[in-house]
Amino acid sequence: MAESTYTDFSEGWTQIQHEGIDRLLAFFSTGEVSFSRADYSRLYTIVYNMCIQRNPHNYSQQLYEAYRATFRDYLRMQVLPDLQSKHDSRLLLTLTRVWQNHQIMVKWMRAFFQYLDRHFVSQNKLPRLDIQAMRIFIAEVYTPLRIAIVQAISSQVRAERDRETIDQSCVRETVIMLNRLGTASEDPVKPMKALCDEMEKATEDYYEAKAKTWITENSCPEYLLKAETALMEERRMIEGYLDSSLEAPILSKFYHAVIEVQETDLLEKETGLLYLLQQNKRADLGRLYRLCSKVNNALVPIADTLSTYIASLGNTIVNERDTQGKVDKKEDSAFIKRLIDLHDSFKSLVAECLSDHSIFQRCLKSAFEKFMNRQVGKNLIAGLIASFCDRALKRTAERLSEEQLEELLTKCVHLFEHITDKDYFSNIYRSKLAKRLLNDDTASDDAERSMIAKLKMLCGAQFTSKMEGMINDLRTAAEVQRKFEQTASSLPVEFSVQVLAISYWPTYPSHNVPLPTSLAGCISTFNRFYEIETKHRNLKWMNSLGAMTITARLPTGRSYDFICSTYQGCTLMLFNERQSLNFGELRGMLQMDDETCKRLLASLSCSKIRVLEKTGNPKAVEAEDSFTVKDNFESKMRKIRLPQPASEETAVEKRVEEDRSIAIEAAIVRVMKSRKTLSHNELLQEVLGMLSLFKPKVKDIKQRVEMLIEREYLERDKKCSTVYHYLA
C-alpha cells in the first residue's frame, strides 16, 4: 500500500509567502494588484491541503497564527514607522493610502485562506479573518496614532472653517476608515468616540472665540446672520466629508458657544430683540428663533420680552381710547380694528417667524389677556367687541363682500378668545342679535349662522344654544304668520306677528302704552286665532319690540312714510288730535316713567331726523318742554327710518350677575354631588376649573356656598368648619 503524501508547514507557508504575500506587498508600490485564476487556485489548494491533513499534520492552527502574524509584522515594521513621521494633512494622505492597501491585502488574503475561514475559524468560533485583520490594524496602527489622527482631522476642519482649501476627500476617507474600524472593534464606538471628543472640544473652543468677536463688532442682525451662515457651513461640512454621527455633538457645542453663552448680551443689545420687534425685522426674528429653538430654555427670555412688548402696545391702544372719554360708534369701531390689526400682526409673526411654537402661542394669549379684559370708561372690551360685531352684521354696515365679512368675523372671534368674561359678551351679543332679527336688520343670514358656529366651536354648544334657538324660532313664527294671513281676510291695516318662545330671547321692559284702535283690533283678532290654533300657551305682547309704518301728510303738501317703533308711532299719532303737547301730557298719555319717555321723545326731536319740534335745549329733553309736529320737515326720501331710542345697557350687568350666581351654585352642587365631602380649598379649585366662561371671585363663591348651606344643599362638618358635606 502506497504512503499518503502531505504538505509540510514550512514548505507550504514558504510557497504562500513567496507566491502570494510577497507579490501583494510588491504590488502596493506599483498600485496594481492582480492574480490570475491559476495563481489563486494554486494558493487556495495549498491552504486546503494543509487544513485537511490528519493530525499531527493538520496545520489549520499554525496557518491561522501565521495569517495574523503576517498582518502584524507588515503593519508594525513597514506601515507604522512611515506614518509616525507624518503630521496633519500629510499624515491623513499617507494613512488613506495605507488603508486602501490594507483593504486590498485583506481581500486577497481572505480569498487565499477562504477554506481556513470557512471551516477552522467557524468551527472554533473565532473572529473571521477579515475581522482579525481589522483588529490588528487597530492595535498596530490606529491605537498608537489615535491622538495624531483625530488632531489631524480637527486641524483640517479648522482650516476649512478659516476659509482655507483642504483635501476633503482625504478627510472623508479617514472618517470612513474610523467607521469601518468601529465595526470590527471589540468596542464599536471607540474609534469614532475619540474623533467625536476631539471635534466637540475643537468646535467649542473655535466658536467661543468667534462669538466673542462677533458680539463685540456686530449688531444683533449681523451676529445672527453670521451665526446662521456658520451653522449652514458646519452642516455642509458634516454632510460632505465627516459623518452623520458627529452632527449632534458638533452642533450642540456650536449652539452652546454661539447662542447659549451669548444669548443675554445678544438680546439686550441696542439692536437686540426689542429693536427687531419695533422695526418688524421678521427675517431676523425668524433667524433668531431657528437658532435659539435648538437650545434648552433659550426661547423663554424671547417669549417674556415678546409678551411684555405686545402687552405694552395693547395697553397703549386701550389707554388712548380710555382718555377719549365718551366717543361715537365710529371711534369704537376704529378702536376694535386697531386691536384686530395688533392681533393679526403678532399672530402672523408667531406663525411665520416663530413656527407657531407653543411657548409663543401661550405668550400671545397671556399678553392679550392682560389688556383685553380691562374696562374702557364704563364699558368692558367684551361689550365693545359685541357691539362691533353687531354693526358689521347690520344691513346699514359698511359694504363688505361675503368673504370680507367672514374674514372680519373670524378675526373678531380670535380677539374674543382672549376675553375672560365671555358670559358678558354673550349677553350683549345675544341682545343685539335679537334686535337684528326682530327688526329684520341683519345683512346676511349665512353670516349670522357662521358667527354663531365660530362661537360654538370656541365655547361649546351651551354658549350658543339660545342664539341658535332665536334663529330657529323665527322660522316657526313665519309659519304661524302664514296661517294667520290665510284666516284673517279683512284687517284695517297690514299686520304681522312674530310668536316667539320666551326661553330663547332676552327679557325686555314693557309699558302699557295705549294702542290705536285699529292696531288693538288686529291684536284681538290674532288672540282669537291663536287660541284656536294652539292649546295651553299664553301670549304676552311685547309692544316695545314692535315696528310701525305710519304716513305723515304735512301742510306743505308733502307726504312721508315713517318706519319707526310701536311707541314712536303711538307718540306721533297723539298729534293727530292736538297740535302741541307738553312733556307732562305726553308722559301721562303714554303711561311711561320719566326716563323712558325722555329717551323716546329725544329720538323724535333731538336726533338727525327730527319730526317734532321742541322748546328749550335742542340737544336734550326736559320736563318743561313742549312739542309740536315739524310742519316744514323735508327729506329727499319718501320712506324714512326713524332712529331708535337709546337703550339702557345697565340691565346687562345685572343680568350677567344673576346668571353668574346661578352658574356658580350649579357648579358647586355638581362638584359636591359627585365628591360628597370636600374641604373649602378643594371646592374652590374644582369650581374655578369648571367655570370657563368667566372667572368668579373667591368671595362670590363663598357667598354662594353660604346660600346653599342656608337652603340645606350643603352642611359644614361638625368638627371642622372648612369641610362641607353634600346633603342628598
Total domains, how many?
Answer: 6
The computed structural class is: mainly alpha
Beta percentage is 5-15%
Query: CATH homologous superfamily name of the largest domain?
Result: Cullin Repeats
Q: What is the strand tally?
A: 11
Mean pLDDT: 87
> What is the general shape?
elongated
Examine the secondary-structure arrangement and name the CATH architecture of the largest domain: Up-down Bundle
Low-confidence runs of at least 5 consecutive residues = none
Main sheet makeup: 3 strands, mixed
Number of helices: 28
**Spatial ordering of strands, largest sheet:** 3-4-8
| Portion of residues within helices | 55-70%
Span from first to last CA?
Answer: 113 Å
Q: Can you offer a commentary on this structure?
A:
The protein is mostly helical and 728 residues long. It folds into six domains: 9-188, Cullin Repeats (5 helical Cullin repeat like, Up-down Bundle); 196-296, Up-down Bundle (5 helical Cullin repeat like); 300-457, Cullin Repeats (5 helical Cullin repeat like, Up-down Bundle); 477-543, no CATH class; 546-641, Cullin, Chain C, Domain 2 (Ribosomal Protein S5, domain 2, 2-Layer Sandwich), CATH 3.30.230; 650-726, Winged helix-like DNA-binding domain superfamily/Winged helix DNA-binding domain (Arc Repressor Mutant, subunit A, Orthogonal Bundle), CATH 1.10.10.10. 66% of the residues lie in helices and 6% in strands. The strands form four sheets. It has a three-stranded mixed β-sheet with strand order 3-4-8. It has a three-stranded antiparallel β-sheet with strand order 5-7-6. A three-stranded antiparallel β-sheet has the order 9-11-10. A hairpin with a 6-residue loop joins strand 10 and strand 11 (723-726). Helix 6 runs parallel beside helix 8, helix 17 runs antiparallel to helix 18 (402-416) and helix 17 packs parallel to helix 19. The longest helix has 33 residues, at 129-161. The termini are far apart.
